[in-house]
């Protein structure tokens, strides 16, 4: 099997990580593209001593570390409000902490593998994750609309949201109900399942809401690769079902990290 064939199954998840790390679809994909170009240019330098997914993320991390210092140049190529917002938060939280948090709680790497990726000891990774959780949770408070037709999952999401100190504006089980709730009580964040009770689409519900006002959205799906095909507009933040509570907490915090409404003065 060629190296490209080994890496292909892992690309959607790397794109998810890159977007969560940058808070921007175009910027995240740019980093992934740069990592792939580096692999093509020097395949002999690809880490062969580890699992292909680990090697792919390690290559990405090298690109991120080397170019993140040139943040101003990236902002010129991909200008976005999120860039200025992120810089305000970066004054309170180091990028390395965010990487450790995302790698362990969203991407599912062990502290040992995360340490390999960011070149830190497992002990230091655990410390970085703890620091990141404390910092992010202290910075972001908002009101959340949940679009989910499975009662037990909806209850779990409600509890997670409240544990983070957020308020739940409502739980919708259909597209129409979601839009109505959003118009009645505007949320600061939306958590949206893909397939809803009446066979309507959470994606369509979100499109309707975003046509009225801007709000960060996190999609929840059992098949994230179906939304990361590169063939249509895609979400920046994705949670994979079945999910872990810490994954939801991290993704919520990361989505709000780039949201202007929650940036402290």
From TrEMBL:
Signal peptide: none annotated. Pfam families: PhyR_sigma-like, PhyR_sigma2, Response_reg. The keyword Phosphoprotein applies. The keyword Phosphoprotein applies. One of its GO terms (biological process) is phosphorelay signal transduction system. InterPro entries: Bact_response_regulator, CheY-like_superfamily, PhyR_sigma2, PhyR_sigma4, Sig_resp-reg_PhyR, Sig_transdc_resp-reg_receiver. Transmembrane segments: none annotated. Residues 143-256 form the Response regulatory domain. The modification 4-aspartylphosphate is found at residue 193. SUPFAM superfamilies: CheY-like. Coiled coil: none annotated. Keywords: Phosphoprotein. PANTHER family: PROTEIN PILH (PTHR44591:SF20), STRESS RESPONSE REGULATOR PROTEIN 1 (PTHR44591). This is Phyllosphere-induced regulator PhyR.
């Amino acid at each position: 099997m060629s190296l490209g064939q080994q890496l292909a199954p892992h690309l959607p998840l790397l794109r998810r990580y890159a977007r969560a790390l940058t808070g921007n679809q175009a910027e995240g994909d740019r980093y992934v593209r740069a990592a792939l170009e580096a692999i093509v240019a020097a395949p002999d330098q690809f880490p062969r001593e580890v699992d292909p997914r680990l090697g792919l993320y390690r290559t990405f991390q090298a690109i991120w570390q080397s170019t993140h210092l040139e943040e101003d140049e990236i902002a010129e190529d991909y200008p976005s409000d999120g860039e200025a917002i992120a810089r305000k938060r970066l004054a309170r939280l180091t990028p390395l902490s965010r990487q450790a948090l995302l790698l362990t709680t969203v991407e599912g790497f062990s502290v040992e593998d995360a340490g390999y990726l960011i070149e830190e000891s497992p002990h230091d990774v655990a410390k970085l994750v703890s620091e990141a959780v404390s910092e992010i949770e202290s910075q972001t408070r908002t009101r959340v609309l949940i679009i989910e037709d499975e009662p037990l999952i909806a209850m779990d999401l409600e509890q997670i949201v409240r544990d983070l100190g957020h308020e739940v504006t409502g739980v919708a089980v259909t597209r129409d109900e979601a839009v109505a709730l959003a118009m009645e009580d505007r949320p600061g964040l939306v958590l949206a399942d893909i397939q809803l009770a009446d066979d309507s689409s959470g994606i369509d519900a979100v499109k309707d809401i975003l046509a009225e006002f801007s709000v960060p959205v996190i999609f929840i799906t059992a098949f994230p690769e179906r939304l990361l095909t590169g063939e249509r507009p895609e979400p920046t933040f994705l949670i994979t079902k079945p999910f872990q509570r810490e994954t939801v907490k991290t993704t919520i915090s990361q989505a709000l990290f780039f949201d202007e409404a929650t940036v402290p003065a």
